[in-house]
Amino acid sequence: MSDNANSAAKSATSVPLDDPKRYLTVSHADHSDLPHIGLAGDTYTILLNGKDTAGRFCLIDMHVPPGGGPPPHRHDFEESFTVLEGEIEARFRGAKSRVTTGQTINIAANAPHQFHNSSTQPARLLCICSPAGQEEFFAELFHVLGFDAPNTSFECLPPLLHRVVKVHRNTIFFGYGFEMSNNATVARKPSRAESRPQSDLSRITADETAYR
Question: pTM value?
């Protein structure tokens, strides 16, 4: 067999066989059965989770009101945003960029960043995180904080999150390869690639979400 034939044979067998246990996934952002997670006034709808994609990525529909968006942070996975409506202000390693409708940005793993809606109109984004896991982080963080989108604001979220970081430092945040601080430069801990410890969710309850 010629070298070309050998190469063709190898290429033909390099893709794994189809997995019949996996099915076509169809999602609609407004469907009531999907998780709609409220954080910092934003609403994050999980369109595709890790179970849907065999852990390769997750897809999140983000509605970000004026003033919305997370504090500075960084994480050990890639994250891309496509702005569907409105605009956001993105900070990447301290540099500020305006991202408008139709534009896509990619946040490199481990880089400090933040996005914020500085406009007077709501913004809508599609967020892809690879590998998956961000959707689980949002769900667990929401459970710990104990409040939803209408009851908080971007301004009050950072102190609450810092309180959660202090209590759950080695579970929720570092367990998902996620760091959050004023400058997003706290010391690294084991990432999601390593075994993630179980969070002690009883250590913060809804009654304790008021920052002291």
Answer: 0.71
CB-based contacts of 85, cutoff 8 Å, min separation 6: 101, 122, 123, 124
At 147, the amino acid letter reads: F
User: How is 148-207 classified by DSSP, letter by letter?
Assistant: -GGG--TTTHHHHHHHHHHHSIIIIIHHTTEEESSSS-PPP---TTSPPPPP-GGGS-GG
Q: What is the dihedral of CA 104, 138, 28, 62, to 10 degrees?
A: -40
Mean pLDDT over each residue of the chain, to the nearest integer: 75
Q: How far is the C-alpha of 132 from the C-alpha of 59, rounded, in Å? A: 8
Give the residue among 180, 173, 181, 165 at the shortest CA–CA distance from 138: 173
Are 152 and 41 a contacting pair, CB within 8 Å?
A: yes
Return the amino acid letter for 81: F
The burial class, CB within 10 Å (0-12 / 13-18 / 19+), for 194 is exposed
Cα-flanking dihedrals φ and ψ of residue 138, to 5°?
Answer: -60, -45
Residues in the chain: 212
Strand partners of residue 39: 42
Q: Nearest 5°: phi and psi at 106?
A: -120, 130
pLDDT confidence tier of residue 209, bands split at 50, 70 and 90 = very low
Distance CA 41, CA 65 (A): 7
All structural domains of the chain: 36-181 (2.60.120.10)
pLDDT digits (tens, 9 = 90+) for 68-106: 888 888 889 999 999 999 999 999 998 999 999 999 999
